[in-house]
Amino acid sequence: MKIKEILLSACALFAMSAAVASPPVYLDESKPLEDRIEDALSRMSLKEKVSLLHAQSKFSAPGVPSLGIPELWTDDGPMGVRPEVLWDEWDQAGWTNDSCTAFPSLTCLAATWNTDMASLYGKSIGEEARYRNKSVLLGPGVNIYRTPLCGRNFEYFGEDPYLASAMAADYVRGVQSNGVAVCVKHFAANNNEANRYTTNSVVSDRALYEIYLPAFKAATVDAGAWSLMGGYNLVNGQHATYNQRLVNDILKGEWQWDGVVISDWGAVHDTKQAVEGGLDMEFGTGTDGLGTKGNQYDNYWMANNYYNGLLDGTYSEDQLNDKVRRVLRLTMRTAMNRNRPWGSINSPEHHAACRKIGEEGVVLLKNDDKTLPILKDRVRRIAVIGENAIKRMTVGGGSSSLKALYEVYPLEGLQARLGNEFDIVYERGYVGDTLTFYNNVWTKQHLDDPRTPEQLTADAVKAAKDADLVLFFGGLNKSDHQDAEGTDRLTLDLPYGQNELIETLAAVNPNIVVVNISGTGVAMPWLDKVKAVIQGWYLGNETGHAMAAILAGDVNPSGKLPYTYYASLDQCGAHKLGEYPGTPRHDPVEGDIIDMHYNDDIFVGYRFTDKNKLKPTFPFGYGLSYTTFDYGKATIDRKKGTADDTFTVSIPVTNTGDREGSEVVQLYIADLKSSLPRPVKELKGFAKVNLAPGQTETVNFTISRDALSYFDDKAHQWVVEPGKFEALVGASSADIRSKVGFEIE
Ligand code: GLC
Fold it and tell me: Which pLDDT does position 351 carry in this prediction?
């Protein structure tokens, strides 16, 4: 063979080997993401494109097998990774290796007012989702707490859009740092569980842009959420999950968001609406899944129905390609990202994170005579009373129900921490909920009790009488009409006769502490008769340890309320002005729906109580400490400026007590004169400072245009009107310690 021929064949071999070595662009992670998407798209058939847009099982969607594009696996939920289900079931599959860390409820995370906790939370839960090989974690929920009756408030970040936005954004960043997508939910104005499939939220643009959308914008635009879930409800007449205004005009239009809109499970009711309304992936539609007639997933609205509409020209392939690009982008960011970390599950780090977040979120609401922390010099015998001292709370509540690896109940935590120093006796007090399993996850508890209510009360009273201190653990739980998906509460009152029992116990022993374990506000008619009150939240695995650390004083409580504690529903705009639970109407297109006019508009939470000069039981942002804090005088770095200037508000804060503690310093802005109605003040900054006894720290807040503007829905833009403003700095929305005026020219 001549040299030339040898060289030519060598070149050919090299070329071939090079061709074999370098993968196609869509698989080459060194190539730009958008180029990889275009390359994959160009290789897909119409059928393959449509198959990407709907589920193939309860929680997964097919990839493109012919191209080696993997399936997309999703799983609940916002507080922990749901145990495995069978292919097309809600019930658990009964695996033995899918227990998880149950992290605290998101309302507890919000109550930390500490974005470092949100980052820690997101990173930790994202590691567990990654370990379980889930590409999409179906959370966080960021819906605003509009009514205390909403069954899913425990899954959300409270009543204020600024606080919810700050906490949600860092949760999102934390989860996605694992190469796991969040699915921020439920977009949008999904604020009650009663009639959740048919409620039509009739809400103004001002309320949307100022109250109900900001947390979604923070999650998608600021934090770059890779997917979002459309809610079951309708918004202004059209289903939220394919709402022209919400999805196409705002989310994908104004916000230019590049992620995937995933329907809530069973939220899709029509092919044309879904396709045109900006939906990208359909899950959970009511078929019998793998029915006798073959794969029922082909009957999804976005399956054969859509495919046929493409073939007959009803739908354009360009529109289809936009959806497919988004799903490919999500898949390449997750399942096809070979550089993702491997995650971890049930690790000591996650259990420590669970406990830390819980300890930082617990809110001390009342502490007369320094009843807490529990000290040996005044207490020998402690009577722990109430069902919530022993009840498993990680099971139940709907899709956020978990199979936690373990759960330390409050009584167990107290016995472990204080059992050697104090006599601790326990009495049930009442029998409320004896739930034993949910979705086939067993609570491993048998809470039945043969005693009559009278006997239960008598036994509790006896224990209370003989004790130096009574710790009452009550509140709500994760069963229907409590803190649970799919139902709202029917009253603001505590269930199971707890109010009467608390008063009875307080009558025999005034040294009583009430620990309210709930994810939402309750009425407290007995407040004046008890010495101390703690808002305990659902704290997950480490409940008992976190609670005991607070009660024993190992940890100084630093949580603040992320929502107003109304004394009655009359103090809440959704009930006072709204038409909760809505007015039935037959709609020619949507059928029988329930109109819920958001007459409270932008006046939600403290915005409503401020405006109407109402005094709630406890205000938004309220929380005590075992130490005390003094605020100096607020100053501003300039008195006049233009809307685009930034101002800095400073205030010294001192720990005037005898022990270390953290204080959440809150900044509210008041626009003293505006052409459209505005709340008296709005939260526009917060900082959590940890101070040693006697230590002073100057807290600085930056005020920019965002902090001053309101949404002018006529002009459809955010405006800052010249005039006088005030920066108000305080320890809660109702405890302003100093304010300083400034002017916008
Ligand atoms: C549920 C919930 C949603 C959940 C989904 C999957 O109905 O509304 O939050 O992620 O279905 O379980």
Answer: 98
